[in-house]
Amino acid sequence: MTAVFLGIPTAPRGVGHLRGDQSFPDAAREALRDGQLRANLGHATSTIRGKRAAVAAELPDWAELRAAAKAIKTATMARLDEHLLVLERQVTARGGTVHWARDANEANAIVTRLVQATGADEVVKVKSMATQEIGLNEALEAAGIAAHETDLAELIVQLGEDKPSHILVPAIHKNRAEIREIFLRTMPGVDPTLTDEPRRLAMAARAHLRERFLRARVAISGANFAVAETGTLAVVESEGNGRMCLTLPQTLITVMGIEKVVPTWRDLEVFLQLLPRSSTGERMNPYTSMWAGVIPGDGPQEFHLVLLDNGRTATLADEIGREALHCIRCSACLNVCPVYERTGGHAYGSVYPGPIGAVLSPQLTGVEDNASLPYASSLCGACYDVCPVAIDIPSILVHLRAEHVEAQQHTTPEAVAFRALSKAMSSPRLWHLAQKAAGLGRFLSRGKATLPAALPPPASKWTRTRDLPTPPAKTFTSQWAEEHRS
User: What region holds the LUD domain (predicted)?
Assistant: First the structure.
């Protein structure tokens, strides 16, 4: 029996896709200059929002389902170690092998070793956030193993040498014309008369992938859920590519974050009602695949489950932040977020973009490695309203911002300014002097309602992203004194 240890360090630097090369504000400024990107995102997210709202409204007990999902996740996280050990026993009893990976480096090494043991030099993949998180494709490539993405959107991203920008629709930032150009440029043997009609594009991708499905001896998948009591893994998808990967190869390797476990089949029932409605706006996914271990003569004859930590137990140790581990990767929060809709997913620098990424990525890496992400939000609360498991993302964002401020040890210009303000507000004499000094701002405004954005540093960092009202001609205290003098 394998022991489960809590308090494992955060995700290591230099591997995987949890940290960006730029801070969010810098990356967002570049994204905002791309009008085509904003048009693509606006159209796609509004369409998905509408579909989700319609199917969620069909269920009279939608609120009760959300509450049930939240309760299940909270209870599961409280006893996560026990449920994982039950899962390991059940998978092993059904002929599978369970591997434990502390971080991205260990997970990549385990999967690479397992593929090499089969003698294969290529694998087919079901869309998997966990393998993107750890940079598995790059690790396999370094070992001479080609990884073929089979999800249509992931294929588009891979062929275009791009990065995913959405949890559910990784190529959401691309339109049909751009996808056609990618296929014509990178897909061997594609019909040169290919149009940007969705059906024609899908058929081209199908022909490209079919030969890879039929020749592949190894498949790599993620998992939407794992049922501890039976050792059952579940993948839900809309195209059928997952079903091909999960049934045709001889060896199946599943990489799963440890938070994906649910205790029982009855728990799974709740999530299978919430996930499709919140993600694709469907009543159920076209393909829901479940498997447990191996069955002689039917499907893969070798099954490996890699249970990934990579900062998850460190997140679990945070009493407030651990709620981010409840996420079922539906992407509903991305589709309603005004910040994501305008900047896209690449600005977040992580495979987990949008509101959930703004709270999950900093915790997996350590807040200071992703210090700008908790500020990538207007705190409007729309993400919390649509979350199918009722994650209070705004509260976690504020919590992580506070952690970042504390970590700075009050040395930032903003911290110095607030300390000075606190001292002034605690002394009536200093406060009156400060009010008189603030009145000078009226000269800078030149009659306008706000001060200019181009104030000198460090004030420019504040006014660049916020409107600073022009100080009034009279302070409240002076007006009060005048009115009550008589």
Answer: 87-293
Angle CA 460–464–467, to nearest 5: 105
Q: What is the pTM of this model?
A: 0.87
Chosen domain end from 297, 313, 329: 313
Is residue 248 domain-resident? Answer: yes
The CATH number covering residue 246 comes to 3.40.50.10420
174, 219, 405, 467 from 415: Cα distances, Å: 41, 51, 8, 19
Are 46 and 156 found together in one domain? yes
- Single residue among 259, 278, 313 that ends a domain in this structure: 313
User: Based on the domain organization, do 300 and 433 belong to the same domain?
Assistant: no
Angstrom distance (rounded) from CA 450 to CA 442: 9
> What are the pLDDT digits (tens) for 312-331?
999 999 999 999 999 999 99
Is residue 439 situated within a structural domain? Answer: yes
- pLDDT bin (cut points 50, 70, 90) of residue 481 is confident
* 301 and 421 both lie in a single domain: no
Same domain, 63 and 184: yes
Own/partner pairs, 171-178, CB within 8 angstroms, 24+ separation: 172/40, 172/41, 172/44, 172/45, 172/344, 172/345, 173/37, 173/40, 173/41, 173/344, 173/345, 173/346, 174/40, 175/36, 175/40, 176/201
Burial of 24: CB neighbours in 10 Å, binned 0-12, 13-18, 19+: buried
What would the two tokens of residue 281 be? 């706006």
In a domain, 62, yes or no: yes
Model confidence over 206-258: pLDDT tens digits?
Answer: 999 998 999 999 999 999 999 999 999 999 998 989 999 999 999 999 999 99
Write the CA distances from 249 to 109, 215, 218, 270, 362, integer angstroms: 21, 8, 5, 31, 36
Backbone phi, then psi, for 220, in 5-degree steps? -125, 130
Residue 54 has pLDDT above 50, yes or no: yes
Tally of residues, the chain: 486
Residue 424 domain-assigned (yes or no) = yes
The total number of structural domains in the chain stands at 2
Same-domain status, 28 and 144: yes
CB 255, CB 134: distance < 8 Å: yes
Distance of CA 445 to the CA centre of its chain: 41
